[in-house]
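During the reporting period the student researcher (J.K.) took over the structure-prediction task from the postdoctoral fellow and processed the backlog of single-chain submissions. One of the processed entries is reproduced below for the supervisory committee.
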Amino acid sequence: MKLSIAAPTHLVTAFAFSLGLCYPAKMLDLPRLEDLIAQMGQRARVAAAALALCPTSQKANALIAGAAALRAQRDAILAANARDMAAGAAQGLSAAMLDRLRLDGARLEAIAAGVEAVAHLPDPVGQVIDTTQRPNGLTLSRVRVPLGVIGIIYESRPNVTADAAALCLASGNAALLRGGSEAVESNRAIFAALQAGIVNAGLPADAVQLVPTQDRAAVGAMLAAHGLIDIIIPRGGKALVARVQQEARVPVLAHLDGINHSYVDKAANPDKAAAIVANAKMRRTGVCGATETVLIDRGFAEPGKIISALLDAGCAVRGTPDVQALNPQVTPAQPEDWDTEYLDAICAVTLVDGVAGAMAHIAAHGSHHTDAIITEDAATAEAFLAGVDSAIVMWNASTQFADGGEFGLGAEIGIATGRLHARGPVALEGLTTYKWVVRGTGQIRP
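J.K. obtained the following structure tokens:
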């Protein structure tokens, strides 16, 4: 194939992707990064305008076709992921990071199924939130509309490429995706499959774009793209999210830490509590919904059972002296342990004075992400659910359920811990805003 020197930049980029290339912008002879992001943003805005008016059925067809392409390209995607895994291991990525990065047949099928699930969710665009009629006869409605162009900056997890693309498309938004270098091969393979589905359904190819360089300056260019990108959603480590929150000139939807707590109340069933705590910590230690601190009521009859459940599951336990006294395998907890998101098989444990003590500890050390109480006392549970200021609060359930799919939202684009716009797992509805629609019969204001 021969490209003219005058070929548009985005065609050169697409050609580079088709050859399996992904290099810094200067090696692709692309414009400087600010111009590259500006060009992508401008094309995304055009695509977003088309998507906002796109029928639900067409968006759904695009996602179903994308899911089929993911399955059809299974071997290529897994081979790309194997290259990422090998490179990650050579670079010394932690076990938690490698777990986030790893794909296998089951995980890839879950990604494809998640894309399909989004296709079948109710379309929020055009939904009427409420309608009122003024005394002068004007009818006022609040109607859901897309946010516009969403920039997603993420690390390690290749599933975010599919989740973000699916959710943005289904909610009528265009997406600019900037994945981490750890998953560059996986992200490109997944993106190629999804884009094939988008184009086959007759939607603009620019509806979802993948930034074609791993140069870190591309992140800065996205954060400064005021007027082109409407909102930034970071998904990754604390350093990435902190940078985005500090430097962004556009709104940000994010959570910084997942310092989650499981509180075992004195009225908890010991067997149930042990099973929930072990799952909350150890099912997958690298997810943001994993429990990092276990709080045990001093009045609970079998605290040793909780400690043993963690140790037997392969978790290192760091505890206060009274917790150390329960099991010799517990090592001393340091002050920083109460403020650490381990994302590993490590857990901090302390005893507290009832539900009030648990809530005080969570208020002092939590990150407003997910916190759970385990108890058979309904009144105590309701006090906890009402009193803990977190995006997600749970009763007798593992914190690992902090996931958009488990909430029936299909895939999620992230979990927001702030208080504005959206909170908790952010899916289709969280990617919309609303406008006022006013209908009159000739009214004029006196």
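The committee noted the following: Confidence is low (pLDDT under 50) at residues 1-29.
J.K. will present the remaining backlog at the next meeting.
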